[in-house]
Write a structure and sequence with these properties.
This protein is mostly helical and 415 residues long. Among the domains are: 131 residues; 118 residues, no CATH class. The protein has 21 helices and no strands.
């Protein structure tokens, strides 16, 4: 068994811990090996080897006393199971049943304790790496640790893990690196992904730090596809309060400007962000977007090769044919809502069309976000709808173009 007590080889330590966790997981699935396999089971051997060296490995960490006890219990249960294999009485049979059940239960406890150990090692190593930036020169290892954190918190809420994150002040270190233009762009982007994952992990605990700190401004200033993607996910998680903060910081014009980017991915993600803001934004945010000429930009995008009109895909144009255009991730995927086989085929056809033409019917999709969203009062929705129609007519280059887009705005939302 490799010495796990050294902090100088943390990546290797984590690999060994992951192997031990996998061994305990396998033991839960197969707690009752045949008599010939009791001594040769790799899962049992790995864990019993850890138990044998527990005095030198586990005794140095007071957090591991519970794990040490579980390993001692496992050793006793395995001995009991081995002894029961030598007899064929009813009592031995019952002993084997009880032992295998107990082995599975103890293996589950061992897995939980090892996962807690992994969490402590990972967060301690990650925090140290972020704190030592830019002196910590192993960029790939740091990104690996950031990805592990993102994946770990994405598994669901865990109070012990949350306590580790809070005690280590990890969120502050992530934010510091995100906001430091001298740090590697890759590391900054992965810090952004980790922040987004922590918000999804427990919004109530971490949302205050996002709203009060420089995260939002830094994401917008970075202006990369990764940072805009994280910004969209934060809007979906935090909703109107985050949009209020974006507006108050004066970042709406910067987001609208991303629609002019030469990078198609950034332009598409900016469209998603606009739709998210439209759904959750209050009056001030919507006014700020319209003031920046959003409708004119959307008309131009709809006119482009990547645009088009969903109304031309078989819609009859009647008011009973209400269409719910929505965005690509948060509320929907830009597909009309329908029921039954015909509507289902139409939805699939529209989805394929939108994959190839991400700006199709984008004016109507934005208008519907305001119509069905959470940020506006009913009278504000009506007023903005009229303003959108006016701006559409001003931006269109022909009566035919204006008629098509106006029809989509009117028929794509509730009457």
């Amino acid at each position: 068994m490799e010495d796990l007590s050294s902090k100088d080889d943390s990546p290797r330590v984590l690999e060994v811990l992951e192997a031990l966790k996998q061994a305990s997981h396998e033991l839960q699935a197969h707690p009752s090996p045949n008599s010939d396999e009791v001594n040769s089971s790799s899962a049992i051997n790995a864990l019993l080897e850890l138990e044998t060296e527990s005095d030198t490995i586990l005794s140095k960490d007071p957090n591991l006393s519970t794990l040490s006890q579980h390993l001692s219990n496992l050793k006793a249960l395995v001995e009991t199971l081995k002894n029961s294999r030598r007899h064929h009485s009813i009592r031995s049979f019952l002993t084997r049943r009880v032992s295998t059940h107990s082995i599975a239960r103890v293996a589950g406890s061992i897995e939980s304790e090892i996962q807690a150990w992994i969490d402590r090692e990972s967060i301690e190593t990650l925090t140290r790496g972020l704190r030592e930036q830019p002196k910590f020169n192993n960029e790939d290892e740091l990104i690996k640790l950031l990805t592990q954190l993102e994946n770990r918190v994405s598994e669901g809420f865990n109070r012990e893990l949350q306590d580790l994150v809070l005690k280590s002040k990890l969120f502050s270190y992530l934010e510091t690196i995100l906001c430091d233009p001298n740090c590697s762009k890759r590391i900054r982007e992965h810090c952004a992904f980790a922040i987004g994952a922590l918000i999804r992990f427990n919004k109530d605990v971490f949302v205050g730090q996002v709203l009060m700190g420089p995260t939002i401004g830094s994401l917008v200033t970075m202006g990369s596809s990764a940072s805009i993607k994280v910004l969209c996910s934060l809007i979906r998680s935090i909703k109107s309060p985050l949009v209020d903060e974006i507006e108050s910081l004066g970042n709406i014009p910067k987001i609208i400007k991303f629609l002019d980017s030469q990078d198609l991915e950034i332009k598409v993600l900016a469209m998603d962000c606009v739709l998210e803001i439209g759904y959750f934004g209050r009056k001030e945010a919507i006014e700020a977007m319209l003031k920046e000429g959003l409708i004119k930009k959307l008309v131009e995008l709809q006119r482009s090769e990547l645009g088009g009109d969903l109304i031309d895909m078989g819609r009859n144009g009647g008011k009973n044919d209400n269409v719910k255009f929505e965005n690509n991730e948060g509320v929907g995927d830009g597909v009309g809502v329908g029921v039954g086989g015909v509507e289902g085929k139409r939805e699939r056809r529209e989805k394929r069309f939108l994959e190839m033409h991400p700006f199709a019917s984008c004016v109507a999709r934005f208008a519907v976000q305001l119509e069905v969203g959470e940020g506006l009062r009913q009278r504000e929705r009506r007023a903005f709808k009229q303003e959108i129609l006016v701006r559409v007519r001003e931006a269109c280059v022909s009566d035919a173009e204006a008629a098509t887009i106006v029809a989509e705005v009117l028929w794509g939302s509730s009457p």
